[in-house]
Amino acid sequence: MSNSATALQSKLEELGIPLVFTKEHEPVMTVDEMVKHLDGIEGERAKNLFLKDKKKHYYLLTADINSKTDLSSIGKLISAKDLRFVDGKKMTEMLGVPLGSVTPFALMNESAEGVKFVLDSKLASSDVVCVHPNRNTATVGVNGANLVKFAEATGHEVVTIDLPENGSEPAAAAAAAEAPKAPVKKDAVKAAKKAPKEKKEKVDEKGVNKEGIDAKKMEDFSKWYTQVITRGGFIRYHDISGCYILRPPVMFIWEKIQDTFNAAIRKLGVRPCCFPMFVSKSALEREKEHVEGFSPEVAWVTKAGDSDLPEPIAIRPTSETIMYPSYADWIRSYRDLPLKLNQWTNVVRWEFKQPTPFIRTREFLWQEGHTAHATKEEAIDLVYKILDLYKMLYEELLAVPVVQGVKSEMEKFAGGEATTTCEAFVACNGRAVQGATSHFLGTHFAKMFGIEFEDRDGSKKFAEQTSWGFTTRSIGVMIMEHGDDKGLVLPPRVAETQVVIVPIPPKGAGAQWSNAELKTMIAEKCKSLYEDLDSNGVRVILDDRDDKTPGYKFNHWELRGVPLRIEVGAKDLEKGVVTFVRRNSGRKSQEGKHTHVEVKEALEAIQSELLEAARGKLHDGIVKVTNWDDVMPSLNNRKLILAPWCETEESEEQIKKITAEQSKEQVVITDEEGGAPALSGAMKSLCIPLESSGYQLPMPEGTKCFFTGKPAKRLGVKPCYFPLFVSDQPHPSEVSSATFLPGKVTSAGESTLNEPVALRESGNSVAWKCLSEWIRSHRDLPMKVHYWGSSIRFNSRWRHIPFLKCREVLQQEGFAVHRSLDESAEFCDALSKIYRRACEDLLALPSREAYDGEQRFLEVPMLNNDQRIRFLTISCNGVDDSLPYEDSDGHRKPAHVVTWRMDFSIIGAMVMVHGDNRGLSIPPSVSEIQVVVIPIPPPRGIGSALFEERMKAIEQRCEELVTLLNERSIRCIIDDDPKKRPGFKLTRWNLRGVPLIIQIGWKEVETNTITVVRRHNNEKLHNEPSNADTICRHLSRVNDEMLLSARQST
């Protein structure tokens, strides 16, 4: 079965569209040949015509074989001029099926976007229509109404027309021929001339509107959302369903979220980490209740190349079962607690529901934090601190208000004790979206994985745990909340471009200046404004394209959601002002003061206005309900329900069941044209709002549940890129059969996938598809993109070595496209210098360049041998005919491509070069802990009282020094464990590679000095001044000396 036919089968199952029959036969190229194979089978035989009109709009017409398909008549019926057939090559390219296989089902292919589906009315009302299933070796029967459903579900406009049978004339045409012609009056001619002309839509070669969106948010939300995120430059659809390419504007938002959240959790003592994406079947199934919550969504890797793996390997749906065995190893004593780790990564949950970019996807980016604590109170406190940070991300960055609350017992995280949540509301479709969750896990997982510690009193206890996550779903919520019929509306704090400056060409010379003078003055004003904003931290673009009108530029940047547009024209110059146009409100204002200060104030005002407008929608969207009879009307009015509830699982089940049944029966009658239909689906609990959220119902004594009539209660918990997947046939440059075998996912839960999905070893194939689509003109160049992610490499001949030879490798991969070879060569040189400098400055490692044809490598030589670790590959691929662009002279030219890849084998090199027989030796620039302060107790023989007095003074001096160093951003801790001797502590921190160890005893207290032990050479320096400058000087010298030592040794 072909890939297209297999994908069709999955799509039909997803939409719930059954096939009446399937008839296999030999390949056919015409309708007549198909009909010969359908003897004795009931159903209307269909013919398919692929057409285009003068404006390059494309139409797929499916008609009864007995209907007359005169192109002139059809053109009149669908208001299309000069209809003609599309040539075979173009048809195959756009519909994605070979000649002889044209069918309405081809509309599911991404290449068919923008094709209008025209259906013969006789087929629309038919019980059985005979068409091909995206291949000409079979014919299937499908209900006519389901053909319409299929086309609409794949985002295509459907037009139904009445076609006459062969040999007859259309009734309307016949009637017109028989009727006498009325005399034409002059007034009618004038009226016709005054009638507004239909606005011409600018389209590309596929008939797709390029200048904006044509769907209305309140009329067709699904289509609007698809157009906004694709035409607004946010995503590109991937050939693996449910996976999407996130373009640079999206990743800019995600990195803003990362930076803000990282800075906040760092203050809470949370540290970064990275765990593998794979988990064994036995480990995943170890926690039964937890895995049952994810079982249908788990993707399983069962093959490496064509060979079966000994045991299926799961791709993480979440990381509890991956991380917690390590927690059990690391945690032994109360001194090891709290342990707080966070990782930014991707997760796979193989959803079988209709995927929606950002909201419901099979692969998504997220942050997940996991902590272990000695006490329940400490764990719960962190749960709510994280919940407040999530609210901060939504409201302060994305300008989206959320309701904080606690999930019901049925909706909480599988295996946890309680789940807190931030819930967002999308007013235009009446739906709520779970924005982020923070879970209190209790000791459930600790008992399962043996995360046990010895407490201060010597007793054994299980750790109290939390987990919490925030995903790229947040970006989808932001789009839905703020976007309008013109496109995206981005909050200034996360917009990649905050301001666009548009010069307005003069239309005519004024009294003071000539046209040429005006144009020069406008250009100089725009440039001056740009330089002021750019140099003061405003993300600004000057759109001075000469081949585009101001109106085109306005639409272009409005579609992309740029918060503020600044217009500079001749009238503005005369008045000494510029015009501010705010994207969120469309409000225009002429500003005499327009330096970076005023622009930043305007951007902050826009940020505040977006949040306040969204808060108003949320407030208006919540209805307080105390009676069951008010539930369905409120839901159908697209409202959230706030109601007193008894919080029993039985009532929650019944509420879902009853509302699901009633939603199927209800029809909403409105007085408005195009009134909204009833919402489908069951009502489910979102959260029980926290008192602090401001959305909790006041519930006097005796308040009854809105559903059961029992006493209501409140839960008493006090203050919770390029995709990983590629097609099963990778790009030839990605996998060498002699080196790596592609990992393949063949099942999800207990279901076998229709077609295996490969895990990427490289992003080349996906990147090339994107680049070939994004690059059209010389104005698109240079284009440089990169991503951080996992590379999957199966090799049965490898002896796996951490960092150097792994099945999962963390890597950075980049792609740069230039107009000329000189630009590419210059970029390669600059890239190599950047990585060499980073290697030296951060890791204290010397590196050497090596060459092999068009490839350049950076290698770290090993100590006293000829081995080298290659960590960077730069490929100057030269001219690439698959990436043509239109140059400034109008000619099509191939672009020049540079690709590069760096993986974390460089960390393995650092360990091997600097480590010694005592353990790791980590350069200060990258060491998580740069300094450890160890108090040295005085001798016991001086007497108990004097010992205590001096020990207290030593500990106080250690604490003062640590505080001083932390204020200077030196990563420093104190090891004051009274049960361990100084020698043990020194050995422990030497093993972990901490660059500097500071010892403070009574002698150092008396002389106000410190003793410094330098890890890399074991040098011990006495009587060093006790200040931060001394420590900074030592850290700098350690980095330099480690690099010098590595150079001499290699």
| Helix amount | 25-40%
Q: What is the CATH T-level topology of the domain at 222-278 and 330-482?
A: BirA Bifunctional Protein, domain 2
Broad CATH class of the domain at 222-278 and 330-482: Alpha Beta
> If you compute it from the alpha carbons, what radius of gyration comes out, rounded to the nearest whole angstrom?
34 Å
CATH superfamily of the domain at 222-278 and 330-482: Bira Bifunctional Protein, Domain 2
State the distance separating the first and last CA atoms: 57 Å
Q: Give me the secondary-structure category.
A: alpha+beta
- Global mean pLDDT: 85
- How many β-strand runs? 44
The coarse silhouette is: globular
Low-confidence stretches: 168-209, 667-678, 715-720, 732-738
Mind sketching the topology for me?
Blueprint: H1 3-15, E1 21-24, H2 31-36, E2 44-52, E3 58-64, H3 71-77, E4 84-85, H4 88-95, E5 116-120, H5 121-124, E6 129-131, E7 138-142, H6 144-153, E8 158-161, H7 171-178, H8 186-194, H9 221-231, E9 235-237, E10 244-246, H10 248-267, E11 271-272, E12 278-280, H11 281-284, H12 288-292, E13 299-304, E14 307-315, H13 320-330, E15 339-348, E16 363-373, H14 376-397, E17 403-406, E18 418-426, E19 431-442, H15 444-449, E20 452-454, E21 460-462, E22 464-471, H16 473-482, E23 499-503, H17 515-535, E24 540-542, H18 550-559, E25 564-568, H19 570-575, E26 578-582, E27 588-591, H20 596-620, E28 622-624, H21 631-636, E29 640-642, H22 649-665, E30 688-689, E31 725-726, E32 743-748, E33 751-759, H23 764-774, E34 783-792, E35 808-818, H24 821-843, E36 848-852, E37 855-861, E38 868-886, E39 892-903, H25 905-914, E40 931-935, H26 944-967, E41 972-974, H27 982-991, E42 996-1000, H28 1002-1007, E43 1009-1014, E44 1019-1025, H29 1028-1049
Helix pairs in contact: 10-14
